[in-house]
């Protein structure tokens, strides 16, 4: 399963009632933070999470509202005696930007590893997590900017009959199901494919913020279990602002969802000028019915289907 | 008069219920912010203020909890179409720190002027504000750190009898009272001292955070109308922590106040480990009776006395 918490849903500047857009994803015991604007550590704590166990920070881009909270977060991690390294991922320039910001967070008791993105699409697994894949894809903003999909794959169903036919003792079943190759007491090597059926549908979360509509978003979100997408403006008459500032309207996000057909769409990254998203949701749902307004703390656990 | 709003009272990290320590001071139409940690622009807005009209930002030092909110604040000022320059004041290294942080706030529509402090004590007036003086004084922390006093002087009482004896028309009275030299219609030059009595007691606010107790604090706060002073820990058994981390306990702040005799003491910069300051205030008031726990948004207007 993938635990998802939208920590904030604001764009541009943090507001008393709306933190800046960022996302916490927890899967297989790993914690991944996407973006870290000013106040992200506050909303993280408000939702009952701690900064200490964050393994990975993915940055969409380096506009301040997506990274200004980083020095404070790093210091809070340091104060909680973290020693494990943190992986940071983002467009080219990441190390320079992070090191500049670290003028006020110079001494940390943990290493930072950088992975800078430059291709149109890049995928990578976290160490020891071959069933959990992070896929970065370039989107269309005023500066280089990436969206991210996170995919949890699912092995085939365990074939009890085949395991019994092979005479495998039950303690080996779980290891095979997790994808391990095992050796039996009588010296036979058994690979997972000998006892597992065909791969089943996994889970996918797609996250996009700060972009004009573009094909890479539709491709990434195709059939996703959850698509979280920026919608800077609800009002129809803000279309020109959206184009000028390289953002999207709610309607544009909904059109992308209609093309990609995720199970659900959550909107986020609202303009400070947008008081409430709800009044615009009827129009959005005419385009894509399973659309919901993101709000600070909105959470879901994505689970494998029962089959 | 001087309007004072303690925007936050936390130290180290911003918390859901307690913003980082910073202060907004308004006097003679000027707005002065002291320190700007992560979230300061949120609490500023929460109290009904805007970042746009801030004229001066005073930094005590460059630990992240005192400056991490600066890039976001600068961008919010930019987004509100500010064009007037901003004066920043702080210990040596200010320009380097600010410019490093500006990696995420590069293009601003206003100038930043820097005033770096290096002496044990430095005083300066804001342009056109000769009756309002800012006095920086070095305190004792793990890095160079300054406290600030802000002083509004008060001219002598207007001597109506003398003005009448000089045959001055009433329209000139107000200008003389403000300290202007005037020329009468019949060509006489009149200076303020010809119609004003001796200078009267002005107003003084003294602000200290991140320091061990030291004499410069007592000197600065001597007879102040308000002394705002850090008290990192309320608990007696945290004395060693206070020494090790170059901070103060509530009791140490109160002892400084007892020596300086300000009209009031407000405590601030509480450790995240301190849930509430109130349980420790009885002990504090045994040392200095007019002591109050700072809290986010605590405000006062300091006014000249009636005489």
Structural summary, described in words:
Chain A has helices at 40-46, 70-79, 94-101, 160-165, 170-177, 215-221, 239-244, 250-260, 281-287; strands at residues 2-8, 22-27, 30-34, 56-58, 86-91, 112-117, 121-125, 132-138, 146-154, 182-183, 189-190, 200-208, 226-230, 265-268, 291-293, 298-302. Chain A has 307 residues and is of the alpha/beta class. In chain A, helix 6 crosses helix 8 (250-260) and helix 8 (250-260) packs parallel to helix 9. The radius of gyration of chain A is 21 Å and the shape is globular. The A-B interface holds A 12-16, 37-39, 41-43, 45-46, 62-65, 67-69, 71-72, 75-76, 79, 96-97, 100-101, 103-105 and B 12-16, 37-39, 41-43, 45-46, 62-65, 67-69, 71-72, 75-76, 79, 96-97, 100-101, 103-105.
């Amino acid at each position: 399963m993938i635990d998802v918490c939208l920590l904030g849903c604001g764009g541009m500047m943090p507001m008393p009632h709306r933190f800046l857009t960022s996302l916490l994803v927890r899967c297989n015991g790993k914690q991944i933070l996407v973006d870290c604007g000013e106040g992200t550590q506050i909303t993280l704590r408000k939702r009952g999470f701690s900064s200490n166990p964050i393994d990975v920070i993915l940055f969409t881009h380096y506009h301040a509202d997506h990274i200004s909270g980083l020095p404070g977060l790093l210091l809070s991690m340091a104060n909680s005696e973290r020693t494990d390294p943190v992986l940071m991922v983002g467009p080219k320039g990441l190390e320079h930007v992070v090191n500049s910001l670290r003028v006020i967070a110079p001494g940390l008791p943990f290493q930072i590893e950088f992975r800078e993105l430059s291709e149109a699409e890049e995928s990578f697994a976290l160490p020891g997590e071959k069933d959990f894949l992070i896929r970065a894809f370039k989107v269309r903003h005023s500066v280089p900017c990436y969206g991210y999909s996170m995919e949890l794959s699912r092995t085939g169903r365990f074939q009890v009959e085949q395991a019994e036919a092979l005479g495998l003792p039950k303690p080996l079943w779980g290891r095979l199901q997790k994808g391990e190759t095992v050796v039996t007491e009588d010296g036979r090597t058994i690979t997972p494919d000998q006892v597992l059926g065909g791969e089943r549908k996994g889970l996918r979360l797609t996250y996009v913020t700060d972009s004009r509509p573009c094909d890479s978003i539709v491709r990434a979100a195709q059939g996703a279990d959850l698509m979280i997408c920026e919608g800077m403006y609800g009002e129809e008459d803000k279309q020109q602002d959206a184009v000028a500032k390289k953002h999207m309207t709610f309607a544009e996000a909904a059109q992308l969802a209609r093309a990609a057909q995720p199970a659900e769409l959550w909107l986020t990254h609202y303009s400070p000028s947008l008081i409430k998203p709800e009044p615009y949701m009827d129009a959005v749902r005419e385009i894509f019915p399973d659309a919901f307004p993101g709000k600070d703390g909105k959470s879901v656990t994505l689970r494998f289907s029962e089959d």
